[in-house]
Amino acid sequence: METFDVQLYKPKLHFSPGQNWINDPNGLVYFEGEYHLFYQYHPHSTVSSTMHWGHAVSTDLIQWEELDVALSPDEQGTIFSGSVVVDWNNTSGLFPDEPGLVAIYTSHLEPIDRNSQQTDRYTQQTESMGHENPGGEVFSAAAPDTVSAPPYLDDQCIAFSHDRGRTWTKYEGNPVLTSSTDRDVRDPKVFWYRPKGYWVMVVATGQNVSFYTSRNLLDWKLESRFGEGFGSHEGVWECPDLFRLPIEGTESWKWVLLVSTGDQPELGNGSRTQYFVGSFDGRQFMPEYNRIQWLDYGRDNYAGVSFSDISEQDGRRIYMGWMNNWRYARELPAGDWNGAMTLPRTLCLRPLKNQLLICQRPVAELDRYFTEKHKLSGITVSNKQPYELITAAAIADIRLRAQHDGLDELTVTIHHTAEQYTTIGYHATSELLSVRREHSGRSDFDPLFARGQQVHIPYSSHLNLRIVLDSCSVEVFAGDGMYAITSLIFPDQACQRIVIQSRGGDARLYDSFIYTG
Fold this sequence. Notes:
Helices cover 3% and strands 45% of the residues. The protein contains 2 helices and 37 strands. The protein has helices at residues 117-128, 447-450, and strands spanning 20-31, 34-42, 52-58, 65-66, 78-87, 100-109, 130-132, 138-140, 153-161, 169-170, 185-193, 198-205, 208-214, 221-226, 237-246, 253-261, 272-280, 285-287, 302-306, 318-322, 337-338, 345-352, 355-362, 372-375, 380-381, 387-390, 396-403, 409-415, 421-427, 432-436, 453-456, 462-470, 473-478, 483-488, 497-503, 507-509, 513-516. The radius of gyration is 24 Å and the shape is globular.
């Protein structure tokens, strides 16, 4: 891989590692005044390989302090994705004195030899375990001579911490959940289901997700599965999350299930994340309708999950994703680091016609990182009369509200250098919001990266856009957060000037600002 100045694309507002490779965010949790971000991490390379859990903490979700590696591979395998919860009431028996953190993660083991001890461990598991169905009956595993070892083993394990996540002890009874029949059983997300007083685990199982319950985080019962006949199945299902979201402007709420779908070479957009809105009774998820809904219409928001244990006084559901795409993640121009997270976002639901859409906005903590404010209200822009701001800002937050009586297109062009630029445009005729990055800098490492990204937005005489610029990304939120396009870029510098103009009609800006820093 070609090497570049390590600081050239280093983000100012997004978490990225000091060195080496990261991917999925794991174990997002708030505890004793700190936000914890664990993440898939390879501490010896800028290319994905033997997975560990990296660890960082923050008091404001924007500036992060990297800590020592939290979890490292062992005889049970490498450390794949998972979650972290606070065991407030010592349900596990691991915290007799005060509450602590429990990590629930996937141990991934790839046999070197089908006749090795690793394959023997698989056989022992299938001989000894039972499999509980949703009705509570226990089925015996198949006889050893009818079971063939898969190419790898995915078991669910736990570890616990008594010192705010600084050190971890792996549970001596690991694994706490095994499977003799399913493939790609991984990425457990666990939460406390208060109405019934037990823990719920949602875990990916191939092209489905499975729901388990437990009173103690140690013994798990299969309750139900979801996925067949619903949503997109173009890639393997990964990194599920399940949580309640309020419906904006009401006292009501719904359950939301996030599921990421992995990349396949024939897919047009690589890896991406879908969601389902419905109900959950503690054992079974029921979607309200069967349609594919994407969380983000850019190509660089994947495997995201939400923080657990946010206080009731705060009340937010805060989400972060991996700002990348498996199609080209290993090919990105990098120095001695590779990977970043999206901005943390607050989620809610908003009605649109006969459906509920996730609305996402950057957290309010972001605002204080911008030091200059440029007011645009009262300005009219056209093709012949654009608005231009000359700025060498390292970061920018562009907030536009525009009213028009009919136009063909409204564009925001971020000129990174004299030759490099990124264009965000709304095309009124086609009702498409697009992000074009083929001229934004380095884009030649994969054909998919240079293709346009777009989302359909119903026509309106009022446009609402928010664009957050960092050294290697633009995150676009339209309709006050109802539509998102997250996009990596690799320019030689973040910004030289910002140009706003319309074509085929005038646009009048109101309540509009550009914040820079």
